[in-house]
């Protein structure tokens, strides 16, 4: 039996994001499940010049992570070896000032998120949630 999955998400800068998963069974039935999806938005202050993607990758390596950058038609992504957490990073000609850390299942706290936040914090970035900005280091 195969299941077809459709994910519906709402744009949010919140650290918590709910996803509604619609599951269609071969018999034509539909089931819905609400999934908890965590994201952390990180940004450079507007007064700071953007970081290069190379600087971000280097900062992640200094935190003992193994990042791999992929530029796709729909955006730039940084994948981390051995983790399901990914970083969606806005890039304009190799420069960035905003990224979203999409926490992998079971990786909401601890590693690799702590190391990712430290890496961005050392580059002068800060976190953003519904209550405003917060320091990363």
Could you outline the blueprint of secondary structure elements for this entry?
Layout: E1 4-8, E2 16-24, E3 30-43, E4 51-52, H1 53-62, E5 67-72, E6 75-80, E7 86-89, E8 95-96, E9 98-102, H2 113-122, E10 126-129, E11 132-135
Antiparallel strand pairs: 1-2, 2-3, 3-9, 3-10, 4-8, 5-6, 6-7, 7-9, 10-11
Helix pairs in contact: 1-2
Structural class: mainly beta
CATH class: Alpha Beta
Poorly predicted regions = 1-26, 30-35
Instruction: Based on the coordinates given, report the CATH architecture.
Output: 2-Layer Sandwich
Number of strands: 11
Helix content: 10-25%
Could you give a short account of the major beta sheet? 9 strands, antiparallel
Strand content: 35-45%
Instruction: State the CATH topology.
Output: Double Stranded RNA Binding Domain
The arrangement of helices and strands along the chain is: EEEEHEEEEEHEE
> If you average the pLDDT, what whole number results?
80
Offer a few descriptive terms.
137 residues; mainly beta; Double Stranded RNA Binding Domain; nine-stranded antiparallel β-sheet; two-stranded antiparallel sheet
Task: Explain what this protein looks like in three dimensions.
The structure is a single chain. With 137 residues, the protein is mainly beta. It has a single domain, classed as Double Stranded RNA Binding Domain (2-Layer Sandwich). The protein is built from 2 helices and 11 strands. It has helices spanning 53-62, 113-122, and strands spanning 4-8, 16-24, 30-43, 51-52, 67-72, 75-80, 86-89, 95-96, 98-102, 126-129, 132-135. Strands 1, 2, 3, 5, 6, 7, 9, 10 and 11 form a 9-stranded antiparallel beta sheet that branches. Strand 5 and strand 6 (75-80) form a beta hairpin. Helix 1 (53-62) packs across helix 2 (113-122).
């Amino acid at each position: 039996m195969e299941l077809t999955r459709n994910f519906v998400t709402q744009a949010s800068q919140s650290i918590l994001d709910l996803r509604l998963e619609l599951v269609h069974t071969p018999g034509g039935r539909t089931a819905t499940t609400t999934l908890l999806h965590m994201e952390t938005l990180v940004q450079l202050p507007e007064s700071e010049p953007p970081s290069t993607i190379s600087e971000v990758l280097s900062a992640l390596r200094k935190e003992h992570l193994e990042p791999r950058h992929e530029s796709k038609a729909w955006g730039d992504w940084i994948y981390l070896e051995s983790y399901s957490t990914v970083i969606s990073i806005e890039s304009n000609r190799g420069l960035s000032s905003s990224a979203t850390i999409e926490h992998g299942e079971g990786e909401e706290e601890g590693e690799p998120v702590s190391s990712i936040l430290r890496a961005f914090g050392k580059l002068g970035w800060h976190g953003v949630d519904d209550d405003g900005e917060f320091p990363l280091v």
